[in-house]
Amino acid sequence: MSTLLEEIKAYKEVFKQKASEEKQRLMAQATKELEESGVAKGLKEGERVPDFTLPDATGKMVSMKEELEKGPLILTFYRGGWCPYCNLELKAYQREIDSIKNAGATIIAISPQTPDASLSTKEKNELEFLVLSDEGNQVAEQFNLVFKMPDYLVEIYKGSGLMVSDHNGNDDWELPKPATFVIDQTGNIVFADVDSDYTKRVEPGKVIDVLKSI
């Protein structure tokens, strides 16, 4: 079975063949500008996780505090079900769901999508873990992950028929950087992976190794 990073590499090759050079140049420029801006660096290892309550894909409220009482957590922030890299990552975690449970942990995925859009993502990827809706990026903001998409990138997305605003229920065109945290039962972050390049993700196996070491 292929790894997440192998799947991402294969997808990027297809994208390079299909997308115009100008589109690729502008998307790379947006990533570079985001990295150089210094915004949304994310919480770091050793910091405490903020407590929050968010609705899952069915509208049921889920409390971070109550989830931590069950055991350590993998918390992964994704951009939305419209993002192919996010879907590859979510499916990769679904493949490892038994390993995560065997480590005594659970995984929660969070995006700024509405509950309806989150439900579509959960069903499409056949996810057996919690998918929470952080409308307005209020929790992602507490994790220092939120940035505003530049206008030229918004136009590229719109030109591709991708209306992020429809998925998120607002017109702010703000997104969280993709990020993965491992949180111990005391609420401390023991692993943090935050990258300005949305095509880069951490391999789930590495995250599970961290879980096992807690």
TrEMBL record:
PROSITE patterns in UniProt: THIOREDOXIN_2
Q: Tell me the superkingdom of the source.
A: Bacteria
Q: Does the keyword Disulfide bond apply?
A: yes
**Which reaction does this enzyme catalyse, per its entry?**
a hydroperoxide + [thioredoxin]-dithiol = an alcohol + [thioredoxin]-disulfide + H2O
In this chain the Thioredoxin domain maps to 43-214
- Give the Enzyme Commission number: 1.11.1.24
Q: Which InterPro entries match?
A: AhpC/TSA (IPR000866), Peroxiredoxin_BCP/PrxQ (IPR050924), Thioredoxin-like_sf (IPR036249), Thioredoxin_domain (IPR013766)
Q: Which keywords, in A-to-Z order, does the entry hold?
A: Antioxidant, Disulfide bond, Oxidoreductase, Peroxidase, Redox-active center
In the record, the note on similarity to other proteins reads: Belongs to the peroxiredoxin family. BCP/PrxQ subfamily.
Summarizing the function annotation, the protein's role is:
Thiol-specific peroxidase that catalyzes the reduction of hydrogen peroxide and organic hydroperoxides to water and alcohols, respectively. Plays a role in cell protection against oxidative stress by detoxifying peroxides and as sensor of hydrogen peroxide-mediated signaling events.
Protein name stated in the entry:
thioredoxin-dependent peroxiredoxin
Origin organism is Sutcliffiella horikoshii
